Amino acid sequence: MVKEISNQSSCIVFVSDSVYRNLVDIKNIENFSTTSKYEIALRDNEQFLRPRHRIQRILIEGKAVDCRAYVILIANGFLAAEFLQYTERERLINTRGLFLLIYDSRLFRPHLHYLWNRIINVVFIRQYNAYKHRSGEKASKERIDLDTIYFPSHRRKSIATKCIDTWYKGKWRYGTNHFTEKITNLQKKHLQIAVFEHIPAVTEKSRIYYNKQPDNKIEGLGIEFELIQIISKAMNFKPKYYMPENITSEKWGIEEDNQTHVGLVNEAIQGKAAFYLGDLYYTLHHLNYFDLTIPYNSECLTFLTPESLTENSWKLLILPFKLYTWIALILTLILGSAIFYFLSLSYKRHISFYKNQMHFQSISMKNEVKGLYLFTEIGNSILYTYSMLFQVSLPSLPSPWAVRVLIGWWWIYSILVTVAYRASMTATLANPVARVTIDTVEQLAKSSIEVGGWNKESKNFFSMSSDLSSQKIGNKFQLIEQEDEAIEKVANGSFSYYENYYLLRHARVKRQILEKEKKENKTTEDISSKHNLHIMQECVINMPIALGLEKNSPLKPKVDTLIRRIIEIGLVEKWLSDVMEWSKIMEIRQEAESEKALINLHKLQGAFIAIIVGYLLAFMILIAEILHWKHIVLKDPKFDKYHLDIFYNSTNNPKITNNLN
């Protein structure tokens, strides 16, 4: 047997006790010189609660050089069981390798059944003593059977073994390969599949197919559910799905205060299933409880955040231009008004005064000065320059050509500004109301809303991050078990929910349909105060996702090969599209039914605000004029309502007199 093992493995680890230490004569084994050998000598009172460092070091070195064969010759079944439990628990041995052990019924006690679902390439040496029927004397030739176990080993009081060969009279009865492949064809045996429904791994629609094969109806059953269907056909086993008790609330499971586990983790620790479906992240935490296959997909983990509408319709008049554009327009208006003012004043004071001194006073001279009064006062200059921006014609066109040329170019500038303003105003009214969203981790960290999710590992991920924004999120991260409760808090605008993109998209569509039904049924609940749901654009992390297997599962190499082939032919992308098809269709319907570019009173409130402000300012100026008339003009000792011309003379009001002249 050792020779047969050496032909299949280039390295063997020998573990023996004092009884069998010299049983194997390695020197006489043919072609064994090329095989590496590690030897572990166990004491009869060996303790594995605190194992010797030498044992650990040899096992670690053997696994490092890919030792795939173990010859364990221990007479004490209890000691052999403890050794196997310790090395399997600490992953010091390759459970998918070849094992040769001494048969002992104590190795098959009920609490050790899980070992034989993980160590399946095992052969037990079972020795029988032959006696003569009449005399009872021991025969010279002994019979040795080679037994192995059935896989999978279902939970029973005892494990049945089967004989694969017999050594009798110095030869094998069959002489074939004793380490046969057991996972290629499982011969329609049942394998337990623990299920935690989580989009896009497994959907609720898959429940009706737990006890039967899916028909040709196109439904999104979930990526992992479809994977198991393909794997079960390729490996010829029957999947037996079940949902653990309270899995909806416990989910993956956490370690409770009394160091017990719940959820899928508890199922894995107890070894109740061969496969675990639940959108498991490929993390070190999960590798402590599961064997994970190669990742079949990566999911964007992000946040579902509340979306707010920008209530800026009251700013309708200033929305067409940005702040710097308005500053440039105001400065241009002031500069234009000043140029008109100084140009008109200079023409009136200098050119007109010079012509008067040269006795050019005539009718043509009076016509030339005509119209300059529009800009010779700074207030009038600003008012008429401002009115030209609104394409209001001047009362009269000034006669000086210098002023006329400047007015012409100002009109061209006004036309361009007005056209741009009107076009931008039209676009502002035509576009939907702008939305305020949170799209980065930095924005979420700065916001006042709470964040949370149902997975404790996610909280630890943010808390231990080197990024300051992620640390802030980790400090306010809350654990919330119920998904519906979390979505409701997001809709209220006080929470942000952490999950994968596909589940958040599905949850958002469900929420939109629910709100639509409430509006149609005219429920008393105030839906107008609810926020729209928005999925943050930035991915916190692209997390690899894998199928869960029992720890140290012998199925992993074969399953990895099948999953790799399934990925290469594009089935995973197809199944993901099937899962998200309903969400995509409902989103398209929601977008088609939503109102766009509707100009209503709400959008036009800026115009009403402008006219109300104008009325208020005019009313305030009117009151100021009345108060000025009553408290200043009427109390002036020179005021006489019968001789107003005396009161408004040049000595009292020279400015008014000049204007009248």
TrEMBL record:
GO cellular component: plasma membrane
Protein name per its UniProtKB record: Glutamate receptor, ionotropic kainate 1
InterPro entries, per database record: Glu/Gly-bd, Insect_Ionotropic_Sensory_Rcpt, Iontro_rcpt_C
Membrane topology term: Multi-pass membrane protein
UniProt keyword Transmembrane, yes or no: yes
Domain of life: Eukaryota
Subcellular localization: Cell membrane
Similarity remark: Belongs to the glutamate-gated ion channel (TC 1.A.10.1) family.
Domain Ionotropic glutamate receptor L-glutamate and glycine-binding: 190-305
